[in-house]
Amino acid sequence: MSLALFLATPLLSILRNSSVRLPSLAPAKKKMTQPAALSGVKICIVGSGVCGSSAAFHLSRLQDVSISVFDCGRGPGGRTATRFSRSLPGVSFNHGTPFFAAQCDEATEVLERMVERQLGLGRYEGRRMVLDASSGEMRDAPDEGPQYVGSPHMNSWCEAMLSSNPRITQTYSKTLVEITYDPAKREFSLRDDEDGVYAGFGVVLLTSVATGEERGLSFDLDPSLRRLGASLRKEGVPSDVDRLVNAMAKVRSDKTQTLMLAYPTEAAVPFDCLMVENDPILSKIVILPRQQGLLCLVAHCTRGYANQFTHLAPPTSVPGKEYKPPEELAGTLRERTEGVLRRVMPSAELPAPVMCQLQQWGAAFAVEGPEEARGDGCLWDGCIGLGVGGDFCGE
After folding, report:
1. Which residues of 370-380 are buried (b: 16+ CB within 10 A; e: fewer)?
2. CB 76 within 8 A of CB 158
């Protein structure tokens, strides 16, 4: 089996959830033999979301390989992330997806095994309801089968995968901005935004949302794949990077915003997750377990509302996107959220929050992607050992 297929086969996109599309791993249907080319290889994985974490987990089963995982965030999880509050020590928010479900039986088997073995994953048992913002009608949400959530925190299952093997090392708070390739050594080097250099990698798998050109530009990042391709062409090095560049240029994403709120109140909320219909701004409200006596929740805005804005302040601009300061966006979403809470809990007292923090997700939903990646696990350049994977590979 080729190295390309070995990497691509397990990286099947098998998850969906009510907030973002997520890629993960399905068990191989046939036992795979380790390619000889991977013996002794250093593997670099950029991004520690579901795709990056599960790739590291599966590849760490190979003999005589070392895996380095890099992420610009403070910890793993990607959109299954957990935000630990600095202003309220000990309080945390699952500020990305609130829960997720499997798309196929194979995925369900994988997730159920993780639940049984207590590998950072549990069943989501919260009460899900739907509010029609136009009529005010509330009803139970339809049963969509098993829902899963990280335990004790949303990012715990990614932590479990990355901590499963001592040959996986993790580096956080590093944004990798440049990739270079040495054809003589057949090795990659990567540079971060503080000029730190990480070298000697025989295989690189990019899973970061900033990999795609349009996504990268939305984060004010120069597309590193394009510059790598130009460099290899100039040096006459055979590669397939330009195909990856062209494919990633097709990736388009919807944005979203989430607002983390903590209220000093004992008020009982009649739902755990409220999906809001017919509201141009508010999409859902997710109630978290009570912490330090606080009512903690995360409000999600609609895609249509989020897509109007860019989080890049002037003079940086994104065509067709309006910039609003985070505090203004937070105020709008807070007002909408509190309006709904007062509507469904008319007798409850809702004091001012002790925490109100906005998170803008610049690439929350992959809505378009290269057809050649659909249902695979990654796009692969077998000439130099470079792969690109992520939510755009979904079915």
Report:
1. beebeebbbbb
2. yes
Q: Which domain holds residue 286?
A: 126-147+254-366
**Mean pLDDT taken over the chain:** 84
For residue 2, pLDDT beyond 60: no
Cβ atoms 199, 192 nearer than 8 A: no
Collect all residues with Cβ–Cβ distance below 8 Å to 101 and sequence separation of at least 6. Answer: 15, 16, 17, 144, 145, 146, 147, 148
CB neighbours of 384 closer than 8 A, spacing ≥ 6? 181, 183, 186, 188, 232, 237, 239, 240, 241
Q: At what angle do helices 224-235 and 241-248 cross, to 10 degrees?
A: 150
Mark whether 234 and 281 lie in a shared domain: no
Is pLDDT at 11 greater than 50 in this prediction? Answer: no
Name the one residue in this structure whose structure tokens are 């925490």.
355
The pLDDT of 371-383, averaged and rounded, is 78
What's 332's domain CATH number? 3.90.660.10
- Same structural domain, 55 and 174: yes
Identity of the amino acid at 100: F
Task: Report the DSSP beta bridge partners of residue 129.
Answer: 140, 274
- CA–CA gap between residue 364 and residue 255 (Å, rounded): 5
Of 142, 165, 147, the closest CA to residue 67 belongs to: 165
**Domain CATH for 9:** 3.50.50.60
Does residue 98 belong to any structural domain of this protein?
no
Instruction: Answer yes or no: are the C-beta atoms of 288 and 143 closer than 8 Å.
Output: no
pTM of the model: 0.86
Looking at residue 271, its pLDDT comes to 98
Domain total in the chain: 2
Residue 151 backbone dihedrals phi, psi, to 5 degrees = -140, 130
Q: Encode pLDDT of 111-164 as tens digits.
A: 899 999 999 999 999 999 999 999 999 999 999 889 999 999 999 999 999 999
36: CB partners within 8 A, 6+ apart: none
Contact 273, 97 (CB under 8 A): no
Residue 55 scores a pLDDT above 70: yes
* Beta-bridge partners for 68: 44, 169
Spatial distance between the Cα atoms of 80 and 10, rounded to a whole number of angstroms: 20
Q: Say how many C-beta atoms besides its own lie within 10 A of residue 221's C-beta.
A: 18
> From edge to edge, which strands make up the β-sheet containing 187-192?
176-182, 187-192, 197-201
